[in-house]
Amino acid sequence: MNDAMPPSLPMALMAPDLTVVVPTFNEAANVRPLVARLDAALAGIAHEIIFVDDNSPDGTANEVRALGREKPHVRCIKRIGRRGLSSACVEGMLAGQGPVVAVIDGDLQHDETILPQLFGLIRSGEADLAVASRYVEGGSADSFSDARGKGSRLATELARKILKVGFNDPMSGFFATRRDVVEAAAPKLSSEGFKILLDIAASHPTPLRVREVPFVFGTRLHGTSKMDNRVVADFLGLLVSKATGGLVSIRFLTFAAVGVSGVVVHLLALRGLIAANAGFTLAQAGATLVAMTTNFTLNNLLTYKDRSLRGLAFARGLLGFYAVCSVGAVANVGVATWLFEGNQLWWIAGLAGAAMGAVWNYVFSDLIIWRKKT
Ligand code: GDD
Ligand code: MN
Asked: Above 80 in pLDDT, residue 36?
């Protein structure tokens, strides 16, 4: 034990007015520099800094804990078996003590010197949401590659049009708000993907008063971006999910996309088996089994990435999935036949049957196979 008083103990003893949430994945080298900068920028504001780390292999969480021994206002929430920027931010914000919460990236790309401004706008009641914006006069994202810059602007436009958010940079990962705002929006947040700010703005029960503060998005010094195709897909899913009032979830869309891929797999397998002289009925049965197996594997990898089954649980899940899909097929044929006999067009009856089967498979897979652990 070290008996010496850590130099920043007074900060730890003060009830924080501001909680700064830093989501991290493989940012070990950025932890100390970031905390030093935050503490400098926030001198005079009682604050705590909460890192939310998804068990980064580079030991980010250990780095935060080590620093927390010196600076007790710094702590770490370590999540195991979970991934996701948005959900990390939500958990950090809900875990905070401060009435004002801010989110900032852990890779030093966000200019922390504007944090006091963001904090001030919330603290004074001038705004419900204070956003560090790249897309207002004085802000920029020059460090973006051409493609990333275009993608970012397009995504921003889509979000503004479809979700009717009235401010300029709903994709910013750098903002401040009151904790009660987060709490009011939390039950509706999709928790997937990168777009936490957009999600809060679109999910809050009442319109928020937003103020934007320009900032220049910097370049990364250490580590790499985690933005990838999956993040883009998540974003598009979020648009659909919010535009349909949550009726169509991102998970369901992924499940449905996997289902469509299953049709392709089915046809390919069917052709192969027929070519191998299997006889049609046997070939069709074989192709069905193949498609169910690839669907299960893909759903386990993508749709339920956060609750992936492994080892024995995978085998058990696969058998359960066969069972769920078999009943789904009966439901599918049942509904289609019923509609067809009620004089619907054949393709409408067919589509409705397929939709029924898809929803059935989804609901029961979600409830039984990839059940959420409580
Ligand atoms: N806990 C956790 N879990 N943190 C994550 C995860 C995750 O799955 N993925 C990324 N992070 C952390 C990173 O470690 C970093 O601190 C921060 O979230 C931002 O991630 P980057 O991978 O650096 O994202 P970016 O720089 O490409 O994207 C930034 O700009 C976007 C706007 O174009 C972020 O600020 C985004 O939020 C923003 O939308
Ligand atoms: Mn980054």
From this structure: yes
